[in-house]
Amino acid sequence: MLAYLEARVVRPLIENQILLVVCITTMVVMLGFGIISPVLPLYAQSFGVGTAMIGLTITVFGAARLVMNLPAGFLSERYGRRLLLVGGPAVTALGSLAGGLAPTFGWLIASRFVAGAGSAIYMTGAMILLTDITTDENRGRLMSIFQGSLLAGVSLGPAVGGFVAEGFGLAAPFFLVAALAGVATLWSFARMPETVHLSREQARAAAEQSRDETPPRQTARQSVLSLLARPDFLLVSMLTMSIFLTRTGGRLTLLPLVGANRLDMSPGLLGLIFAMMTVLQLIVLVPGGTMIDKLGRKALIVPSALVTGVALVLFALSGQVWMFIMAAVIHGFGTGILGPAPAAYAADIAPPGMRGVTMGLYRTFGDAGFVIGPVALGGLADLTGFGPALAFNAMVLVSVAMMFAIFARETLRRPVVPQPQAGAV
User: Fold this and answer.
1) In CATH, 12-200 is 2.102.10.10
2) What's this model's pTM, rounded to 2 decimal places?
3) What dihedral angle (degrees, nearest 10) is formed by the CA atoms of 297, 300, 302, 305?
4) Predicted confidence band at 424 (pLDDT cuts at 50, 70, 90)?
5) Domain ranges across the chain
6) What are the φ/ψ torsions at residue 280 (nearest 5 degrees)?
7) CATH code for 222-410?
8) Do the domains at 12-200 and 222-410 have one common CATH topology?
9) Which partner from 94, 209, 302, 337 sits 20 to 30 angstroms from 184, CA to CA?
10) What is the CB neighbour count within 10 angstroms for residue 6?
11) Distance (Å, rounded) from C-alpha 22 to C-alpha 142?
């Protein structure tokens, strides 16, 4: 096992210094996100607001990501990737510091918007950089390693945030996140290289190969419309929207309520089950990345989405703790691929010279699901119950996955093996 991890994770990180730098930065940034998550509702409650306003602190973070992804993509094409990879953590640090110093609830809301904007700027830049430095042959593996660094940060963060808040007060985690984001800013400034030239060189090579003149620069509106007119891009973006909807609406909103209210599970047991799901995702990521590059993107995306849909149905039907745990195991394995594989697909189809716009718009679809999920599925659960809401979540995910299976093309180009000529000895 150790030898396998050394070959599939450690060695690629050592051999690819850019990947190592972006993975370390991402883990630090997402550690900050995890630190805030368990403390934020309690901190918001200390301002004397109701549950709906507490939910707004989460929604506004996602809304900021939603509106900033695409502009960040355009900025990366004009000014380079470093602007996003250095500026994103800096903006996050500013927003987190302001949150810890917030004198009013309105100030806290504004600070969460700023922090969300910083998150969008950095993550969009990271995805574009990964698109620059990967190829069709290794994109699944390297994006899986990146996804692992993201999950590691998110997983470690809540425990750190809880201990810091307990020892130093509810505002203390915000100051810790500001400090971590500041460290990430300095690290990125010192170590993160510029990669926009790789995209521009590919665009020039594509133009020379087609023997066409360099196409005129498109306006922002034309770039977006040209991407939305491509069925493969639209399908993978809709799939990602349904994945994010499942992540925030199904997993983070409904599942804890099902466990606590229907099955009378303790917070400690729920925490262990959710930790187990994350561990399973991490276990699947490394071999899954290899399979993405060997078998193809669709060959992994569609079965993983179907397995996740089955898990959601089992959650909807679960009437005993053992069934909930079984569904959690299936869910962990299913969602392990539903991060890197669609991202690799989107990177595959990014037109030369439009990687920033492509990944920015792709992330915009995902964050739309991030914002819609808790509200839509939570509202449906209020009207119909947890079971129907989770079943609806499963239906949405599986339906989009089947549309993707039928209409989207495979993007992994396998090398053509020459066939022996007739009569050859």
Assistant:
1) no
2) 0.86
3) -120
4) very low
5) 12-200, 222-410
6) -60, -40
7) 1.20.1250.20
8) yes
9) 337
10) 11
11) 11
